[in-house]
Amino acid sequence: MFDNVGELHHRGSDLCSAAPYVGGQLMPAPSFISPHAEALFQKLSTRTARTAVIGLGYVGLPLAVEFGNAGFSVVGIDLDQNKCEAINAGTSYIADVPGASVSSLVDAGRLRAVPNLEAADSLDTINICVPTPLRKTRDPDMTYVLSAAQLVKEHLQPGMLVVLESTTYPGTTDEIVRNILEETGLRAGLDFFLAFSPERVDPGNVKWNTKNVPKVVGGLTSDCSALAAELYGASIDRVVQVSSPRAAEMVKLLENTFRAINIGLVNEMALMCDRIGIDVWEVIEAAATKPFGFMPFYPGPGLGGHCIPIDPFYLSWKVKEVGFEARFIELAGHVNASMPRYVVDKIADALNEQGKSIKGANILVMGIAYKPNVDDVRESPALDVITLLVKKGADVIYHDPFVPHVDAEHSVLGRRMDSVPYSRETVAAADCVVVATDHQAFDYVELVQAARVIVDTRNAVKVSAPNVFKLGAPNPGA
Ligand code: SAJ
Predict the structure, then answer these.
(1) For 354-397, how does the pLDDT look when each residue is reduced to its tens digit (9 = 90+)?
(2) Which residue is closest in CA terms to ligand 1's atom 39?
(3) Domain range spanning residue 33?
(4) pTM of this prediction?
(5) Is 307 a catalytic residue?
């Protein structure tokens, strides 16, 4: 059903899809330009299309499961043999995907995983859900997208639909991916179909998931859009069509740039509040009572994760090509990147109150995941804080129930780090305890009681006390 132009509601579970509605009026099936579109549309609307998802991570696996639940057969493709084996054994390695969801589809013969497309028989649709990280030089690393596009090119057949989901800069789909696929001699929009649809997976979010988060879709042509909307409309509650792949690519970048910049703003507010003796947390809480025109963001030790610190720099990198400087993105990046150092200064203040220096101090970091209640340490600011502390001669240990150890690759010490068991004694033995990630599992009351001094970077310790130094607030007794 169309809510308004371009919105297509879920077509329900019947195998013969009802044509969409506009304002309650039954709409005829789309009229297509390409001679291949009608056949694919029928396969999609009857769920007989053979679908594939390349990349079975926190985006690809839930998507594959939703395609399977809608009735499609799904081939998952992932280079990681362990992932393929886990799926084919009917188990899930993604916390948000129940094992039963995988096993029921595998048992029904609607889901299987292979390490490459060779093993996949002919397909009708392929969704690409591979990482798009940043290089050390802060420019886009398109390695995974390029190799996935090459893989698709080797198996591209007339009538296939290819959708890119990986977050990327505008122009990736209709330039990079399209050019690779057209090396086959097939023409995008006529012989095969091409679209972009941004992933909106929020790991650990119990309310919003792949099925109920609206899915934005931008096709190269109207046929591409209609076919991609049909694929997603069969599996996801709401599809929102935009005019092009570039628009869809930009939607995602606006969403996450909005977030990164507002976090940068509130981090700068925290620095200001600390400097002029105001508690930024009290200010935000009061501002958040405004029922319109305000949206609370919260300061922290920096910006972690695989989305927010990275996505905006795909945009700023792209617009540099046309001589445009994305000043908000760059500035927010500087502010957010400065937060770990500010936290270390706060730790120095806290130790100083005890006549101690960072050098030689025993410091316990509570929580090193990039955000509460997840096990992911990618770009985690806690690791930046630990790096700075170690460089200043501190002896740092951490406790994080979600992160039993950090391998040498992510570890700032160049060696594996293990989470120490939590105990009141461990807390009491530290010269300073740093709350870097506010997991719900922590007992903050006990922390305040047991710790000599705490640096709280998340306003997790909801009490003021002489031994609590808070990010974004004046030091106790200041
Ligand atoms: N952070 C703050 N202050 C805030 C919010 C977050 O410092 O007010 C920090 C977090 O501690 C973390 C980093 O920013 O280190 C990123 O946090 P996040 O809440 O944005 O979590 P992510 O990285 O998992 O972002 C995802 C994104 N989802 C997608 O890209 C599909 C983002 O668009 C979502 O808005 C976000 O989840 C969410 O809302 O949870």
Answers:
(1) 999 999 999 999 999 999 998 889 899 999 999 999 999 999 99
(2) 202
(3) 5-243
(4) 0.90
(5) yes
